[in-house]
Structure to design on (173 residues):
């Protein structure tokens, strides 16, 4: 059982929430998305395991829920270690955006999404991951990622990509 802190829109903890149960209308859980960029300007994309209940075999960046009592940055580092076996240094990354999502399509998600960008040039060895959530990982350039996004092969709840394409001057992508 995974327990999350429950937040209000002022980012104050107002209780706790058990993953998989319905969130209250005025309660939000904190999630992280982590984009790893190498010195070639490529981003690490991961393909979800076919065992995942939601979006099996879809592509995404690393991400997940922030656990009760955990800070956002610590969750980002933990998720990367769990999913792709990489140990990140906190000083090699930064939070680039926080977005609040009430709905994705017609599904209420109520999340506060902290999006991180980390520089990383080391190996990706999925056998060192702590979970089997990721079936495949590969470095991709912007065009490859856009092709996944446009073809529908990317997790539909990932809106980070469109945000960065529309709202940055190329710093992210």
């Amino acid at each position: 059982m995974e327990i999350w802190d429950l937040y209000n829109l002022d980012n104050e903890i107002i209780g706790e929430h058990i993953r998989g149960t319905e969130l209250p209308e005025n309660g939000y859980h904190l999630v992280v998305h982590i984009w790893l960029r190498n010195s070639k300007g490529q981003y690490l994309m991961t393909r979800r395991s076919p065992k995942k209940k939601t979006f099996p075999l879809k592509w995404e960046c690393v991400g997940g829920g922030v656990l009760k009592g955990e800070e956002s940055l610590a969750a980002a580092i933990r998720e990367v270690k769990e999913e792709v076996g990489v140990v990140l240094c906190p000083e090699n990354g930064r939070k680039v955006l926080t977005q609040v999502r009430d709905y994705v399509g017609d599904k209420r998600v109520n999340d506060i999404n902290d999006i991180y960008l980390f520089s990383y040039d080391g190996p990706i060895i999925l056998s060192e991951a702590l979970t089997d959530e990721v079936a495949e990982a590969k470095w991709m350039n912007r065009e490859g990622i856009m092709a996944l996004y446009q073809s529908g092969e990317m997790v539909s709840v990932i809106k980070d990509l469109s945000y960065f394409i529309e709202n940055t001057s190329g710093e992210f992508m």
Remarks:
- The radius of gyration is 16 Å.
- The mean pLDDT is 89.
